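Ticket #4471: complex job returned nothing on first submit. Input attached below:
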Amino acid sequence: MNESVESLRQSDAMAVERVLAGDRDAYRALVERHSRNVHRLAYRLTGNSHDTEDVVQEAFLRAYQKLGQFEARSNFGTWVYRIAANYAIDRMRQRQKEDARREPPDAREDGSEQDPVALVRDPAPSPERLMQSTQLRRQMERALQELSDAERTAFVMRHWEGCGIEDIAAVLKSNPSATKNTVFRAVQKLRRALEPFLDARAQTKVMGSEV
Amino acid sequence: MKHPTEEQLMAYREGETQRREEISAHLKECGECRNELERIEAVLKALEEFPVPDPGENYERQVWQRLAPKLPEKRARWWQMWLEPRRLATAGALLAVVVAAFIAGRFSKPGGPAPVTATQEQVREHILVVAVGEHLGKSEMVLVELSNAEAQDGKQKRVNIGAEQRRAGDLLEENRLYRQTALQQGDTGLASVLDELERVLVDVAHSPENVTPAQLESIQKRIESRGILFKVRVVGKELQQRQDEMKAAPVQSGQQAGERNKT
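Support reply: We reran it on our side without changes. The output follows.
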């Protein structure tokens, strides 16, 4: 294992011990070390900033409350990830129920809050590039929304966050073999949805380079 | 072999070992399957571009500041505090002094005035006096710096107290340990001052890093209104005196704490 990763884990384990010994402020190191990663996971799972913040707060709160039950003390990062993913799934289901009850306004047309492209730093995006990025992002959002909660979670955790199959299986309350299958189904669906768009984009690029 | 299925190609890409060599050999021969694998790769690579908004430079701190008030205090047994790795060095030093005192007791003249139990109490008190004295000195410095901090000119909108805040955060955990130890020693006078100091340190540690002059003034007023700086100085001096007395007369019965508790 990478030495810095190992020392980070040891440092996490020490912080966990200190929290369990009654030192509440030792939890700050754990929160500060992992909050950015949990934010990224939460955003990828929920797709919006409001739910993301809720997931981040709740994940660290639940992790603190359950710290006594945490046995694999050398890997706090994976553990809090699991808690965040679990809560994000609950949150997504709750959101779907709420959305089903009332007709939601299509916030994506103006793209203001939900347009992460606008928030990602790009020194000088050309109009074509911006349009292509926006189109790609919309295609991805649509494709990701069409996945089931389990498929989206499995895909995000496996391909974006690099989590192990065992960890994903624990979140999905499933077995490793079924989890692998869920990851596969997710990639397959995303492929069907995005490939035509990517082929067209590749063709535009080739034509552009020929001019 | 037959062309591998889409699932087998994805598993191969993931590094699965099952039929790996067979698929690898097939890919060398079959352009169609290589192309299929490249297309899977292209979709996954495109998905990596899916943007996540940057939560900002101070995100970690913001998460903690929102979270901290919601966290309940965890109760711990006093011995667990001493098992915490950073404190093992102090615990080790304590043990070494106890052992040394025990040996000294064994080889001292018969009929000497210091039974082992009295010596141990003395030693514990000695550790507390030295460590807490140092802790109060450091705390005093942070409080003095904060009391003297001000906007560099009238136009400055924010004052950065990040350095003081981090030091207050570090002192806070030490403070909790010393307060508990003082209570166990029955030194309620010292425990009470440490308790007051802890409240001020919590205030400072949980303030924003960049404060407005008004916020800074409010922190300074809180320090001033509790008179904590004065108390810290008085107790710090008293501990220094006790330390000097201990150096002059290493084995005495530990009456001082009781005397201070009465005052």
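Chain A is about 75% helix and 0% strand. Closing as resolved unless it happens again.
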